[in-house]
Design brief:
Chain A: The chain crosses the membrane at residues 7-26, 46-65, 86-115, 127-151. The complex is a heterotrimer of chains A (160), B (501) and C (325). Chain A has 160 residues and is mainly α. Chain A is built from five helices and no strands. Chain B has a two-stranded antiparallel ribbon with strand order 1-2. The N and C termini of chain B lie far apart (65 Å). The chains are: A mainly alpha (160), B mainly alpha (501), C alpha/beta (325).
């Protein structure tokens, strides 16, 4: 990263994505009818246009990145443990989505709230725990009983 | 009957306790619904609809209009406080509203949002009453070729919300265009990037993408650097909107309202593009251009004027032609029909008293909006003071409930988190999220209208230049592009050496 | 994947509650899935019947919009739900007879659903812009011969698309797919607007969204697919025009469950709907928007839907309209 400017890297990624789109993704995952009266009407036309634009903007970023000395705000401060916390949060998010059908929205939310709070080193841990329990319950009452949404219920405890 | 008679009859309809109460209840429901992410205005109106069946026609319709108006403003509350647009239309409000809240000016931002909303709402209602006939003829002259050029022009607003680097803004927009291709093709119904998954066939849920792009990265940014203190200057500075603020923003509000009225009277565009267009116009004209995106009050005013300006104007095609401008007015048409009323040109003859009653109700609704909005701000303002370690886990849970509620699928929650990861990567690399969102909204419209135009002409591109309206938008597009290039070159020259561009 | 998850949840809740449910179904709120977004024709019909139907059922009905892919997303959610009667679907002509006939890659078939009733019928009306000079279907057919005729619809695989093709075909256009151009729109409202503003020459769609435009003289009706003339539409009916095949071409709304919905639940639903559709206020509201309220038994509903499906399927195969991708 010392040698290559961030903007140049972003540009290279964009060019790679555009190439992937044009060479792999569109031929494989976009289906079009056999006979199309006009090329501009094909379902493929717009995706290929976007792939072209992606490569174009990538090239622009690479060219400007070569001469840029812009400082990215992401690089300004290095915080210890930041990356680790983000990875833990990703795990929380995945578990959250998986747990909703099993436990129901409310119980999964209480766990996710608690887990996220613990990442944030709260100044008032007791208050945080109270909120973790109460807030999902209040939201449940609002969404299920006022807004009439079928909030997912788990297989263990059904709420009224 | 003369107009005066109709006006008097209209007063007779509205001047009763029930009509005024239903309007007020509507505004309250709308504001609350709008303030909860995931409960969109459409959903609030749909939920309120069954209750109107048993009411007198005018009361029922006033209730729904109240919900509509309240909802459009209500969306700005979470947009400013927790960077989570309550409705898609308030996404543009996030750009400067949230930085203001970070600076400890949440009350001032909310106040300006309310003032701008009410002003734009009033202007929009007046335009409906005074220019409905003129603007209605405008609505029918927008066919696919005209739409295509209008949307092409609207895409130039991306430059106005790109922040530091135009190129990275462009990249963000292209990524948005790319994501919007997921789903079934409009013309042939074939699959595009759906991998046989029925959840992908309808395209990615817009609200899930929106919340994933704005709110989740903010939660992750707090996890990146935790702590209970909010931004540095929180608590300092004025926390109420002042008359001087309003005067300073008045031009932006007027401009935003006009944009809202024009876009609102064209069926099928909606409030979000109008808010962004108004925002980027305000930025272009403002002497404080460099403050936009960092907490400039004019940005909040412009965005809110842009989306509220649409609300009254969407009733123009509805009342004068019977055409719904968006999903919300489609529901309101349903409410008319349930009562045996048919909106359209005949209604001005057969039910003129009702129309004038609605006009009076609309004017009243702007006033109610101000009262209800002021009360809401007083309550919600304190959200900004909740310690971050409790606020952001709460935002997380709220977003999950809200995104589920939109389409009742857990899949959408997964989409939200996936978009959150994308949004966080973009945030870390200084790639702005707003162009992504605009492209995500406008991209499919651009493609669909282009292909519809090609179907009309049998593949000949000349149809895109066939009417005066298309010429106007081609000229405007060209003009904007030249202006963008010139602005980029001058700022490049000025900033060389200091920060780089 | 999510639909799979939904299925798992459903299966699990059933495993817990099924033994008791036999005795006293329903014992908790029932989720009614509307496969379209809020505010559409289907949504409006569903929300109108929810009030009398909820009273008949004796438990709250939770209206859940699962929109997307012309009704496919919501249908799959019900297909994968457990057949305990706590997840039911509002069926509609588009996703449940036209799409299965037209789309090869549809993630469900008619065999994945069990219909308990069709309760609303809505005839089709074909309309043109009065300024176009087209007065009758014959005029329209003549215009098709000259070329440049277009028709709009609410999307690919919708009733409107097949209706336009079927009408042209019945009136002697050999190759309606090639002779007239289909310009799909994204909703009922947009489809009507596109005829009003001249994007498309004609549109064949449900009578209810068109009634206002016809009454105000903004659109001119050419024919209705009903057996008798429709009130408010000054146009000949299919029977008058001696095209009985067109009377199959109607919109409908019904209620369905997953394929293995038990017989006693089907009977229970049929009874509830009989009560609900007798509600005078419901009838009046639906009829005000041009619908015909007519409750079909589960067997009749099934044969009606399959009959419509077969007719459309035959036309689709003959004209090569099937969407393979």
């Amino acid at each position: 990263m010392q040698n290559l400017h961030r903007q140049l890297l972003i540009g290279l990624v964009a060019v790679a994505m555009g190439a992937f789109l044009a060479l792999v993704a569109i031929p494989n995952w976009v289906s079009a009818p056999d006979k199309v009266p006009h090329i501009v009407l094909s379902p493929l036309f717009w995706p290929y246009t976007i792939a072209g634009l992606l490569v174009l903007s990538g090239v622009g970023l690479v060219l400007s990145g070569r001469y840029s000395d812009e400082i990215f705000n992401a690089d300004e401060t290095r915080i210890p443990g930041a990356m680790k916390r983000i990875l833990i949060f990703a795990a929380i998010a995945i578990a959250y989505v998986r747990l909703i059908p099993l436990m129901g929205m409310v119980w999964a939310s209480i766990l996710a709230f608690g887990a996220t709070v613990s990442l944030l080193r709260p100044g008032h841990p007791r208050l945080a725990i109270i909120c973790a329990v109460l807030f999902p319950l209040i939201l449940y009452v609002f969404f299920a009983h006022i807004a009439g949404v079928a909030v997912p219920q788990g297989k263990f405890v059904r709420l009224p | 009957m003369s107009m005066m008679d109709n006006l008097a009859a209209g007063f007779g309809l509205v001047a009763n306790f029930q009509a005024i109460l239903s309007l007020l209840i509507g505004v309250v429901i709308g504001t609350i619904g709008g303030a909860v992410p995931g409960i969109s205005v459409t959903m609030s109106v749909a939920l309120a609809l069954p209750f109107t069946f048993a009411m007198a026609p005018i009361n029922g319709i006033l209730l729904l209009l109240g919900v509509y108006k309240g909802g459009v403003f209500g969306g700005s509350i979470p947009a400013i406080l927790i960077k989570t647009p309550g409705t898609p239309a308030s996404s543009a409000t996030v750009l400067d509203g949230y930085p203001m809240a970070e600076k400890g000016e949440a009350g001032r931002a909310l106040g300006m949002a309310l003032w701008a909303s009410c002003t734009a709402d009033m202007i929009s209602n007046l335009s409906l009453i005074l220019f409905a006939g003129f603007l209605a003829s405008f609505a029918l002259s927008f066919r696919p070729p005209e739409f295509f050029t209008l949307i092409l022009f609207s895409l130039t607003i991306i430059s106005g919300v790109s922040g530091k680097s135009m190129l990275r803004g462009a990249l963000s927009a292209v990524l948005g265009l790319m994501l919007a291709t997921v789903g079934l093709d409009l013309i042939y119904g074939t699959n595009r990037f759906t991998f046989g998954n029925p959840n992908l066939m309808g395209g990615l849920n817009f609200i899930a993408v929106l919340i994933g792009l704005f709110a989740i990265p903010e939660i992750m940014a707090v996890i990146w650097s935790p702590g209970d203190e909010h931004g540095r200057a929180r608590g300092l500075g004025a926390n109420r909107v002042s008359l001087a603020d309003y005067r300073r923003c008045f031009k932006a509000i007027l401009r935003g309202s006009t944009i809202g009225v024009i876009l609102g009277s064209i069926p099928g565009i909606g409030a979000a593009p109008s808010a962004f267009l108004s925002y980027s116009e305000a930025r272009r004209k403002s002497p404080h251009r460099e403050n936009f995106g960092k907490g400039e009050i004019e940005g909040v005013a412009a965005a809110e004027a842009g989306n509220n300006g649409v609300a009254g104007a969407t009733l123009i095609p509805l009342l004068s032609l019977g055409i719904p401008g968006d999903v919300i007015t489609a529901i309101i048409i349903g409410a008319f029909m349930i009562h045996g009323l048919q909106p359209g040109p005949l209604m001005f003859v057969t039910n003129a008293d009702l129309i004038y009653g609605l006009f009076i109700g609309l004017i009243l609704s702007s006033v109610f909006l101000f009262v209800v909005g002021s009360a809401a701000i007083r309550v919600f303002k304190y959200v900004a003071d909740i310690p971050r370690s409790i606020l952001f886990p709460g935002v997380l849970v709220l977003c999950v409930y809200g995104v589920f509620a939109v389409n009742n699928t857990i899949f959408d929650i997964g989409v939200m988190f996936a978009m959150g990861a994308v949004g966080f990567l973009m945030l870390r690399n200084d790639i702005p999220a707003a162009p992504f969102l605009i492209a995500y909204i406008l991209g499919p419209l651009l493609e669909d209208n282009f292909r519809q135009a090609m179907l009309m002409s049998g593949g000949s591109p000349w149809i895109l230049f066939s009417t005066p309206i298309t010429w106007i938008f081609w000229a405007l597009t060209l003009f904007s592009i030249v202006a963008i290039i010139r602005a980029a070159m001058t700022s490049n020259r000025q900033e060389q050496g200091s920060m780089g561009f | 994947m999510k639909a799979g998850l939904l299925g798992i949840v459903g299966a699990m809740t059933m495993a817990v509650s099924a033994p008791m449910a036999r005795a006293e179904y329903p014992e908790r709120p029932i989720t009614m899935i509307i496969p379209y977004g809020a505010g559409g024709t289907t949504d409006l019909s569903a929300r109108t019947i929810s009030e009398p139907l909820g009273k008949a059922v004796g438990q709250p009905l939770v209206m859940s919009n699962i929109a997307g892919a012309g009704g496919a997303t919501g249908t799959v959610a019900v297909k994968n739900a457990s057949a305990d009667g706590y997840t039911m679907l509002f069926g509609r002509v588009g996703p449940h007879s036209v799409s299965p006939a037209m789309k090869a890659m549809l993630p469900y078939t008619l065999d994945d659903l069990r219909f308990v009733a069709v309760y609303e019928i809505n005839p089709i009306v074909c309309v043109v812009d009065p300024k176009s000079g087209i007065q009758t279907v014959e005029d329209l057919v003549a215009r098709v011969g000259e070329g440049g005729v277009t028709y709009s619809s609410s999307g690919v695989g919708s009733l409107q698309q097949i209706a336009a093709v079927m009408v042209l075909r019945e009136f002697g256009v050999e190759d309606p797919v090639g002779a007239a151009t289909h310009i799909p729109q994204k909703s009922d409202g947009e489809a009507a607007t596109s005829v009003l503003n001249g994007t498309a020459t004609f549109l064949c769609t449900n009578s209810s969204p068109l009634a206002g435009f016809v009454k105000a003289g903004q659109l001119h009706p050419l024919l209705t697919t009903s057996e008798e003339r429709l009130e408010g539409f000054d146009a000949p009916s299919a029977t008058e025009l001696e095209k009985p095949a067109l009377t199959r071409l109607v919109g409908w709304t019904g209620i369905a469950g997953p394929a293995d919905l038990p017989d006693e639940l089907v009977a229970q639903w049929s009874g509830w709907l009989a009560t609900a559709t007798e509600d005078p206020r419901f009838r009046q509201r639906m009829e005000a928007s041009g619908s015909i309220i007519e409750l079909m038994s589960p067997e009749d509903s099934d044969s009606f839907i399959r009959g419509q499906y077969e007719a459309i399927r035959a036309l689709v195969d003959e004209l090569g309209m099937r969407i393979e991708g």
